[in-house]
Amino acid sequence: MTPMEFEFLATLLKKRSGLSLSRDKDYLLESRLKSVARKYGHESLSALVRALQTSAPTEDMMKEITEAMTTNESMFFRDNKPFVSLRQKIIPALVPSVSTGTISIWSAACSHGQEPYSIAMTLEEEKARMGGCGYKILATDLDTQVLKKAGEGLYTQFEVQRGLPIQMLLKYFSQRDSNTWHINDSLKKNIQFRQYNLLDSFSPLGKFDLIMCRNVLIYFDEATKRSVLARLAEALTPHGVLFLGSAETVIGMCDALKPLPGEPGIYLHRDSTLTVGGV
Fold this sequence. Notes:
Shape: globular
Largest sheet: 7 strands, mixed
CATH architecture of the largest domain: 3-Layer(aba) Sandwich
């Protein structure tokens, strides 16, 4: 792949998904797009680029190119500490602040669904302390294929062994066969899966008491990070809470958000009315 071909694909992907690829990531393009090229009858990535440059690609082709490049690594209770903070500090603070009686949650870039299901299990475990307060989760991703798997709620033995405590596996899953487990419908009923692009306006999604957008911003350039963070801040309720990944920050990027002291990766709106553990 020539530098010009790389730049063409990198520009195309940034426009469609916000993904920012540096020149040293050409191996990712090569490894992930070869199968897409072959599917559409092109013997190489260079041939695919020529086809994209000389004729209008179908939306299906563009979607497959974009989805092949998005990272879909996930696991149940990934990094764990955010879920400990959610259980011990955030839920007790949110419950008395939610006037609707239902905590509205957005799991952005939810991948195969482990994150929204982990959030739901955490809330179910805390139900006795929530005083009848309910919850609803919107789980979104750019990739329609991973959303299909997330909605089905079927996971292999390997997938459920990654981060999921055995007691939660037995409580919230049923075993289909020796290698397959299925999320119980009682947990799935509070989660809506929907395709959504983080480059689009968040206004149609409404307001949220809790947003998890973890390990996503690291793939964007600075301008895109600023844009996404500003819109995430606008999507929070006055008492809303934003969770980012451990390697992500709003410092120097978004004045509308402030860090929650002692809780790396957790942010409140600048004018937040929420009291968390005396903060």
